[in-house]
Amino acid sequence: MKLIQILIGKTINCFLYLIMINLSNTKIINAQNSFQEQNPANTNNDHIYKSNIQTVLLKNNSIDYLYPIFELNSTEKLILRFDDLDGDIKDYSYKIILCNSDWTINELSHFDYIEGFEINPVNDYETSFNTLVSYTHYWLSIPNADLQITKAGNYILKVFENSNEENIAFTRRFMIFNNLILIDATANQAIHLDLRKTSQEIDFTLKSGNHKIINPYEDLKIVILQNGRWDNRIDNLKPQFVRDDELIYDYDLENVFAAGNEFRFFNCKNTRFKSENILQIEYLEPDFHIKLEPDKKRIFKQYFTQPDLNGSFKIDREHASDPHSEADYVYIYF
Fold first, then answer.
1. pLDDT in tens, 152-161
2. pLDDT per position as a tens digit, 186-209
3. How far is 288 from 132, CA to CA, in rounded Å?
4. pTM of this structure
């Protein structure tokens, strides 16, 4: 486990975070299929609703691998990118929706949290160049000339076709925070004897400074994420100790994540030559098929730490001027 985020919300309009991350130089080509059959009415999660939509990326513009979060009124932006494998030009639009701390839709009018239009078109796109798989690549940045966000909180970005909000292509979560409280956090080996060899414990202290918190046991909602995952989040921890302007969270079991193994990486940004952890590259018309090297058992080997991207990936292609429109789609065999 390398990436931890701690989110603190006093209301829907106040969020802070802490991130500890190690990065490697892993690079892979467009190869993400996260199509999920879901009820389109459920738009408060990360979902892709159309099989032709691939490689949906919503990232902070300052760090490629950072969870989609930025500070209100800062110079940072969110960059959205996605591919349409139909290869034609479609009329995509988007809107952002303010959510409560539990990701239910907030009832505020959009006038209360944005300046600009409620629904805006995705204007920027380009068709793939020199690829076997034809696709159209779309992108946009937030905030922009059409849309400015005025409140911190949890948000859903919804992208849909032909100005029809029921014809959803995909949804993505992102967050905007006000930097009001200092977070001092550490990731340590779990103290509990049964978990010491398998888990990590997240201890942290909140220092409110001049920002007074009247009732820290009721006014704050704590959410801890491991590598940006919401399925195993730890939430609603209460401070164990309150000392002057410090709130101390130092549990033994309630703040523990299973650490797991390091991720294995591979590099397929070149389909002509085998790179790291590539066993075979074969062209079977009309696509490339890439087989990965089988991993060797490491149970009797000396332990070592290998920095990785914590399950993330980077779009790249050797000798490409724009990998987002020149990287190809390939079949990967694990």
1. 999 999 999 9
2. 999 999 999 998 999 999 999 988
3. 9
4. 0.84
